[in-house]
């Protein structure tokens, strides 16, 4: 059984008191092979506002025009990615910062014209990531992809939802765990109760009925993709101390999607 842990870390859960990156380094020390996929939505919105570029979401996805895409790529693949690499290094880890566009890790096509340069993942190539893992490195991946048409890439970069990217990468790596660290305790049902486990049928039903909506939709779909590939897929509250480590130890409070 693989020892790979794919952890999606959202910008909303990172901060001076966050323990997720320390947990990543601890997992590496324990002989596991962590991969970090990160978001950065709050910081993107902040930088878009600085440049007077409006922000709009549809179905939990950021509408990304040409001006927005420049900021998204700069913030995600630049500022956020390298800050995480630096933090992991300071904690004693060995990290390599990448985006999904590097080496064709993520292939994508335009999802919907009304969303602009937002991509739908059509494939993931794990070979480069496996090489880094074998070399003792922690890949840190920004959710940017190259657009592919047929078997060839174009020069167009696409913005990818970080949860979706994490699910695709976990599936391609055949990871043991896919852990989405977010700013909510998990998936809630129609009566507002947090559910500890969902099967695929129930998860899809909650999306179709509108109970799961907004930014939770790509999280649930990401877990479904991971689960289909054999990953233990979990949505947990990343604001809780050592949530990632406790999840791997089986002591988490969140939603598992099987």
Summarize the structure in short.
The protein has helices at residues 20-29, 41-50, 66-90, 127-134, 162-173, 200-208, 216-228, 243-248, and strands spanning 4-9, 33-38, 57-58, 61-62, 95-99, 106-110, 119-124, 138-142, 144-149, 152-159, 177-182, 197-198, 232-237, 254-257. With 258 residues, it is of the alpha/beta class. α2 (41-50) crosses α3 (66-90) and α6 runs antiparallel to α7 (216-228).
Low-confidence stretches: none
Helical element count?
8
Instruction: Tell me the structural class.
Output: alpha/beta
Top-tier CATH class: Alpha Beta
The CATH superfamily turns out to be: Acetylglutamate kinase-like
Q: For the CA atoms, what is the radius of gyration?
A: 17 Å
Tell me the series of helices and strands, N- to C-terminal.
Answer: EHEHEEHEEEHEEEHEEHHEHE
CATH topology: Carbamate kinase
End-to-end Cα distance, whole Å, is 17 Å
Number of strands: 14
Strand content: 25-35%
**Order of strands in the sheet with most strands:** 5-8-2-1-11-13-14-12
At CATH's second level, what is the architecture? 3-Layer(aba) Sandwich
Relative helix content: 25-40%
- Which term fits the overall shape? globular
Mean pLDDT equals 91
Number of domains: 1
Largest sheet: 8 strands, mixed
